[in-house]
Amino acid sequence: MNIKTAIPDAAPLVLSLRSVGYTLESAIADIVDNSITAKATEIYIDVKWSNEFAYISVCDNGYGMNEEDLHQAMKIGSKNPMDSRDRDDLGRFGMGLKTAAFSLCKRLTVGSKLATSAMSVRVWDIDNIMISNRWELFDDSLTLAWQHALNRLSNYKQGTIVVMEKLDRLITENYSNQSISRFWQRIAEMEKHLSMVFHRFLIGAQALHIFINGKRIEPWDPFMRQSLATQEFREEYLECNGGSIRVHGFILPHHSKMSLSEYEEIGGISGWMEQQGFYVYRNKRLIVPGTWFKMLRKNEPGQLARIQLDLTGDMDFEWKIDVKKSSAAPPSVLRESIRRIARTTQEASRKVYFFRGATINQKNKTEDNEAIWEQASIRGRTYFKLNRHYALLKDVCSELPEDSLKKLNVYFSLVEGFAPMNVSLMRPFSNEMNYSEELVNSAMKFYNDLMNVGYSSSEALGKVLQISIYEGLSEVIKGKLKH
Ligand SMILES: Nc1ncnc2c1ncn2[C@@H]1O[C@H](COP(=O)(O)OP(=O)(O)OP(=O)(O)O)[C@@H](O)[C@H]1O
Ligand SMILES: [Mg+2]
Question: Whose CA is nearest to atom 11 of ligand 1?
Answer without folding.
Answer: 73
